[in-house]
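Homework help board

Subject: predicted structure for assignment chain

Our instructor gave us this sequence and asked us to write out the predicted structure in token form, then describe one feature. I got the tokens but I'm not sure how to describe them. Can anyone check?
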Amino acid sequence: MTEEVKQLHTALNETWEQFKAVNETAKAEREKYGKESELVREQLDRMNTRLDEIEVRQNDVRETGNAAPQRSELRQWITTGAINGVELGSVEVKLMNLDDTTGNHGVLQNDAYLQEIQKAVVEFSPVRQFARILNIGTTAIDIPLRSTNSSASFIGEVATRSETTNPDYTLVNIPAYELYARADISRQLVEDAEFNIEAEMALEFGEQFGVAEARHSFPATARTNPPACLTPVVALTVSTPTRTRPASCKSKTCSTWLTA
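My token output:
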């Protein structure tokens, strides 16, 4: 034990004895007055601080004392290749190592495992974001559709007023087609896998549902596929606008037109 360590040890014992005496005084004051005096509280705080300082210094001295011989041996080995006159190669020889070709010591170490599945990017049309989502409890839904537009025209004040073209409507029936995906997974795999298999399958199926929906947004190729949303179900008739020159416009260059 070095001289400094002895001095710190003595100072620690003396300070601890003083702390116990002051602490007894504080205890007596608390029993008599309900709390210790301010002077006693300050003495306790100073002694606590002093005890902490001595303990920190003791730890520093111990660490310095332990590190000094190691630094000396390292410097000696770097400069001479030996420690205390003994060649390092003859001190210790490791016969078991991962690179040893004469044994199977490599099986004692596993490769690192990255818990992240590398995937290629899955591209599909974002057509779903333009769709209107409806929840139904039947196998189909009927949607009324206006198939013919109405019409209107200008007429004189005393002219005969006949019925104009009226709108026409039709009913579009859209079946609720079924889209599904299935994976048979053993309970043992679900419980022991490195990944959350249920969440992984939900993500995979969600992506493929999007791919299938985007693919069948174009003309269908099978009876079990839904009709394409980009294929018009009923052709709509659009009236061609007509222009009438007002009676007050006498010039051929008049630019005032009324459009129906």
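Reply (TA_rk): Your tokens look well-formed. For the description, you could write something like this. The chain has two domains: 3-91, 127-150+164-234. That's the kind of observation they're looking for.
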